[in-house]
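Lab channel / #folding
Pinned by the channel admin:
"Please post every new chain as: sequence first, then the structure tokens as a reply. Keep commentary short and put observations after the output so the thread stays searchable."

First post following the new format, from NK:
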Amino acid sequence: MCGITGIFDTSGVNEISRELLHRMNETQFHRGPDEGGLHLEPGVGLGHRRLSIIDLSTGQQPLFNEDGSVVVVFNGEIYNFQELVPELEALGHTFRTHSDTEVIVHAWEAWGEACVARFRGMFAFALWDRKQETLFVVRDRFGVKPLYYAFLDTGEFIFGSELKSLMVHPSLARDIDPLAVEEYFAYGYVPEPRT
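Reply from TO:
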């Protein structure tokens, strides 16, 4: 079990606070006591808490591609990553680790959003592509690995493996939506757009 968190400025005017991102990340310390990592650049901040399972020596995150233009934070496991490595190497990608996390950055470069259809496993990840100025946030088909997110009035998009990491952000509204509560008791879940 690992934990991911992040802040993305959709408005292009907010500076990402390292201190805020660090606090959001540290709320998930129990998900990854082995190490933590942050990546910040203008408009985006990614955080990761790691529980070392695969590639104990070189699997640190955030993890970058060769030229540093793609970075990912990842929680979960890609079961078929060893099958994808030779295919990606044949396309010219070079691997520095034996981690399933590195497969994600190279698969993104090779196949874009379609990379997710090739992954078998349980996962949630956030990938920032600096060249395309794209944040790609994904969760496995069945939601085995949790991923919470919110769009804030400040123009920021925040996400995390646990709701409490989002609650650290001072701009997150804490109002209860009575209609969402009613829908939960009526249907057993909260339908879109109130989730």
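NK: The chain has six helices and nine strands.
TO: also worth noting, Residues 113 and 136 are 8 Å apart (CA to CA).
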